[in-house]
Amino acid sequence: MAEALWFDLEGERFHALAWGAQGLPPVLFLHGFPEYSGAWAEVAEALQTHYRCIAPDQRGYGQSPAPLGIEHYAPSRLVADMARLIEALGQGPIAVVGHDWGAAIAYGLAILRPELVAKLVVLNGVHPGPFQRALAAGGAQSEASQYIDWLRRDGSEDLLAADSFAKLRALFSANMDMAWLSGDRLEAYRTEWSRPGRLQGMVNWYRASPVQVAKPGQPIRDLPAPNPSRMRIACPHLLIWGEGDRALLPEAADDLEDYVPDLTRLSIPGTDHWLLHQAPDRVAAAIKAFL
């Protein structure tokens, strides 16, 4: 059974769920779009006898703050939130696990606040260097990511919410296995999406992001080349990949070794972007072996 936690971070109150006894080694779990802290329940339940698993609702999600204004969702602000949470635990450095957008924040922590991150685990998420390169190339990843510019449009949150979140659920699936999102779990997600201002907050992550997405076949050629030495991951890093992902393609993680001297890659067949729900025991076993 998950335990509800609250963290007062620079005058804002963040909500989190925790599994495992106090005193066990802490592990921070960061969800992506359009999820919330409860997304980690199955993985955390498989790890709770070994670790204190802490999964916050990130800014704009769940029961954490969802302020108006795109400026509140700048990547530096989102990383600072989680850095303050780790500091509030008083047990750094700790292991950090991220999925989707949560992976972007996990990478940001490892790059900007390396003293807080002992080990890094990413599930179908992307480092900003290789990802921007893939987005700018005008190829398959650019085509798969056209939804980013759609989400950035004014009023996209209203379209996502219409007809009991039909468009959001369609975007969620994107030709992938969504059998896990039904029944009580689907109702729990609808509850989180229905909280005032949450859909706007969630979409503001995309609006505040500096990434540029090329049109298919129209590469962006004037972006400065990424500097791996400035975006280096110093800690040991495990990348777990669901092979059937249609939103993030393998090319988005090409050349990751240029940024990560100590990288381990693991693929899980029969899963896609939502591998933490489709194969939670295999994901948990991989995390436990790595940690």
Describe this structure in words.
With 291 residues, the chain is an alpha/beta fold. It has one domain (3-290): Alpha/Beta hydrolase fold, catalytic domain (Rossmann fold), CATH 3.40.50. It contains eleven helices and eight strands. It has an eight-stranded mixed beta sheet, sandwiched between helices. Strand 3 (26-30), helix 1 (41-47) and strand 4 (52-56) form a beta-alpha-beta unit. Helix 1 (41-47) packs across helix 11 and helix 2 crosses helix 3 (101-112). The protein is globular, with a radius of gyration of 18 Å. The two termini are 23 Å apart. The mean pLDDT is 97.
N→C terminal distance:
23 Å
Q: Count of DSSP helices?
A: 11
Q: Calculate Rg over CA atoms.
A: 18 Å
Largest sheet: 8 strands, mixed
Q: CATH homologous superfamily - what is it? A: Alpha/Beta hydrolase fold, catalytic domain
Structurally, the number of domains stands at 1
Low-confidence stretches: none
Large-scale geometry = globular
**Strand content bin:** 15-25%
CATH class: Alpha Beta
Named CATH topology: Rossmann fold
Q: Element order, helices and strands?
A: EEEHEHEHEHHHHHHEEHH
Task: Give the tally of β-strands.
Answer: 8
Mean pLDDT across the residues is 97
Instruction: Please state the structural category.
Output: alpha/beta
CATH architecture: 3-Layer(aba) Sandwich
Kindly report the spatial arrangement of strands forming the biggest sheet.
Answer: 1-2-4-3-5-6-7-8
- Percent helix range: 25-40%
